């Protein structure tokens, strides 16, 4: 089982990859990672490829990842400013 920091680090890494590499980097992730990363990056168009609404994506990602999504999104936004 992953540690809480391990989950954070994993999602942060996947979100960074997709942010830098775009759709191609996102496309190679697992379905669960794709859903969570699309939520982090606010990419409803990517969710639509899997016929997921935002509500379905939140359900699919699960409480543990949904709880850290806002923090990861903020950290990625702060990295853009630096």
Structure description:
By secondary structure, this protein is mainly α. It has one domain. It is 80% helix and 0% strand. It is built from 5 helices and no strands. The termini are far apart. The relative contact order is 0.17. The mean pLDDT is 91.
Secondary-structure topology with pairs:
Blueprint: H1 4-27, H2 31-40, H3 44-48, H4 54-61, H5 63-81
User: Strand count, sense and closure of the main sheet?
Assistant: none
Distance between the termini: 34 Å
Integer tally of domains: 1
Unreliable sequence segments: none
Outline type:
globular
Q: Which structural class is indicated by helix and strand composition?
A: mainly alpha
Element pattern in H and E: HHHHH
Q: How many distinct helices?
A: 5
* Share of helical residues: over 70%
- Summed over residues and divided by their number, the pLDDT gives a mean of 91
Strand content: under 5%
Count of DSSP strands? 0
Radius of gyration computed on alpha carbons: 12 Å
Summary keywords:
82 residues, 0% strand
Quick structural summary:
The chain is mostly helical. It has helices spanning 4-27, 31-40, 44-48, 54-61, 63-81.
